[in-house]
Amino acid sequence: MTMRSGPGIERHTLAVLVDNEAGVLARVIGLFSGRGYNIESLTVAEVDHAAHTSRITIVTSGTPEVIEQIEAQLKRVVPVHRVTNWTTGAPGIEREMALVKVAGTGDKRVEAMRISEIFRAHIVDTTHTSFVFEITGAPEKLDNFIDLMRPLGLVDVSRTGVAAISRGPEAM
Amino acid sequence: MDRDESMIAVAQEPESTIALPGAEIVIRALKDQGVQHIFGYPGGAVLPIYDALFANEDLQHVLVRHEQGALHAAEGYARSTGRPGVVLVTSGPGATNAVTGLTDALMDSIPLVVLTGQVATHLIGNDAFQECDTVGITRPCTKHNWLVKDVNDLARVIHEAFQIATTGRPGPVVVDIPKDVQFKRGTYVPPNAVRHRTYKPKVEPDLSAVVKAVEMMAAAKRPVFYTGGGIINSGPEASRLLRELVRITGFPITSTLMGLGAYPASDPQWLGLVGMHGTYEANLAMHDCDLMICLGARFDDRVTGRIDAFSPHSKKIHLDIDASQINKNVRIDLPIVADAARTLKEMLLFWKTRKRKSDVAALADWWRAIEGWREKKSLSYRASTSVIKPQYAIDRLYEATRGREVYVTTEVGQHQMWAAQRFKFEAPNHWMTSGGLGTMGYGLPAAVGVQVAHPEALVIDIAGEASVQMTMQEMSTAVQYDLPIKIFILNNQYMGMVRQWQQLLHGGRYSHSYSQALPDFVKLADAFGCVGLRADKPEELDAKIAEMIGVRRPVLFDVRVDPTENCYPMIHSGAPHNEMVLSDADESEMSDEGKMLV
Is B200 strand, coil or helix? Predict the structure, then answer.
């Protein structure tokens, strides 16, 4: 999961609706590793228990030609119902959650708490020497928050990866 | 459930939902799918299925000598009939030995249904004897695969497997069946009761795109048809329609390795093979055309050469049943995602009903240019009266078999390219070769599969002495089933294509490409119980070829050819189409960038 950047490289968020059958996630991930595509984040969970469908949200990067190939290759995977690109298609909403552990005392601790309020992060665990913040938002907001915590005693980060959905009344 | 209870259950169930042991479900499903032949090899984890086969007279099982042979035989069977090839192998090594054949079939879009035994469900993940993660190993080399843990899913999965293997872009599938599932009783469902939830390949073309294609064709001044294996896979109707479209438009046509036979090679509009070892006229036509009509081919690197110099002045129409092939290597101006036959039918219909005509004057100029390229006679070679030139051997084989129902398979290397260049195929499904994966050892077992499907036909494996040793053991299969395959070995004692590249790119350092010890193929033939022949001199060849064809037994024919002949014409890796090398005399130093490519 490395960030790729360079001329013509774009970041795209793809939603993939799949049959929730054994090995389906391996098929999708294997496609990315086997063909040399990039995964920046990946989120997967069942979304319809009765219909046995899961939704995989993948943040990937590549040239427009590579992104087109990724979409076409995903559609070829047998248990895939639908693939939607939230970057080139209808505008979507992206959210991610992170748990961020910061250890420290004195001014640094106060500063960490002050910044967490600006970011509307919640404190979900505290000791005399640490906080665990829960923060939700666009991935860039999480990046910024984590960067600010770094000099204040950042010790651990756990991120969910991106969940995305379209605006308006339509399904994907 | 004890025996009596199960009998009652059977009696009460309607015929279509009868409870059977898993092994019987497999046999029943194969029969309902119209399967007549299975290529396989038994082992511990498939014994219940082999037990069910024992009493069966409808399914003919062909016992191979190595599982890889089963896969290639099934590929030859599938490619020569248009029906799926069916394979049955055991768990562990049975499954891992199948991997090369699966990858080969995936690359060349060959429909195979491969059933693998697996250890019992309670042992999975336990490092049990002959256990391997078959679905994990075969996931990237199949179109789809399944591990069946519930006997009640077995019939449905097998029917889905046939549907997925044979429709859309065909390919290999694996159904992994644990041993306990083969014993347990479950419900059988017939093929028509199964419909897949997500798999719906697109076969009908977008008609507005077809109309646009026809208008582009009518306006073209330097058009070329570039066709591939997709025409063959679409079925004989696609080949028939292609011939009509080529005739009615008057356009030149070239083909990939996989597409040979879709258009008759004896026709004047045929330019021959395209690509790395394609003809001068085919490659120059591809380079200079203003409209490329790609039908069922995939712009493979062996066809395109240097991609940024590939056909720089043309608009490109690309018909493919697999949407992921569009824009993969080359930017396409007009994509059509559909089945070839259905699209060709619509193209012809629009061309006729709209009364479209080719640009006759422009086409005449275009053909004049092509005739100029043809005069280069790029397939010519220096004849010899003292040694057998491999090209001469193939020419004599072709002449001796002309007009007969002949199926040709090949191994991989120089002999394969010479066969593709020189053997003139007139009909689809008569040419079986490993194109995408380039699997040495493909041709002999593929010939076994072709001969099983066409017992009366003449089936010839044009082979190299290096490749053929990789699957030589399948001669024993040919002898067991009385399959009179002809193994025509162009024996130059080298891995010829490796030697050629070492000569041209690695300063003549022939690192490990010479076989210092070769078997005596005539004695080997004798040991297998088939016929052995040898020719050392050109004047012996015709009589020996006649003998090979005349004898109704498997033949190993050791044709001793010039050891250092190179395969030309050639476009070096990283070079564009208009920089073809026609002979050794044309060779120049190659760029380092080119050397890095394969």
Answer: coil
Own/partner long-range contacts of B244-251 (Cβ < 8 Å, ≥24 apart) = B244/B348, B245/B344, B245/B347, B245/B348, B245/B351, B248/B348, B248/B351, B248/B352, B249/B217, B249/B223, B249/B351, B249/B358, B250/B358, B250/B360, B250/B363, B251/B217, B251/B220, B251/B223, B251/B224, B251/B225, B251/B293, B251/B358, B251/B363
- pLDDT at site A1: 44
Span B556-564, average pLDDT: 97
Retrieve residue B7's tokens: 């009998």
Contact yes or no for B491/B465 (Cβ under 8 A): yes
A51 in contact with chain B, both atoms CB, cutoff 8 A: no
**Active-site annotation holds for B217:** no
Q: What is the pTM assigned to this prediction?
A: 0.94
Distance CA B69, CA B483 (A): 15
* Helix or strand holding residue B71 (H, E): helix B67-81
Cβ neighbours for B15, distance < 8 A, ≥ 6 positions apart: none
A50 in reach of chain B (CB within 8 A): no
* Test the A interface: residue of B198, B298, B321 with most A CBs within 10 Å: B198
For residue B550, the surrounding DSSP H or E stretch is helix B541-550
Annotated active-site residue B130? The verdict is yes
Give every CB contact of residue B253 below 8 A, 6+ residues apart in sequence: B224, B225, B226, B227, B242, B246, B263, B269, B270, B271
E runs forming strands in B274-416: 291-295, 315-320, 334-337, 406-410
Q: Predicted ipTM?
A: 0.90
pLDDT number for residue A4: 58
Secondary structure E strands in B162-290: 172-178, 185-187, 223-227, 253-255, 270-273
Q: List pLDDT tens digits, range B400-409.
A: 999 899 999 9
Residue B15, pLDDT score: 53
Here the tokens at position B536 are 């050392």
Specify the pairing of strand B19-21 against strand B185-187: antiparallel
The amino acid at residue A154 is: L
Residues of chain A contacting B322 with CB distance shorter than 8 Å: 76
What integer is the mean pLDDT of B105-125?
98
φ, ψ dihedrals at A82, nearest 5°: -150, 150
Query: How does pLDDT run across B80-98, given as a tens digit for each residue?
Result: 999 999 999 999 999 999 9
Tell me the pLDDT of chain B averaged across its residues. 95
Structure confidence at residue B495 as a pLDDT band (50, 70, 90): very high
Contacts of B24 (CB under 8 A, 6+ apart): B52, B188
Q: Does A30 sit within 8 Å of B197, measured CB to CB? A: no
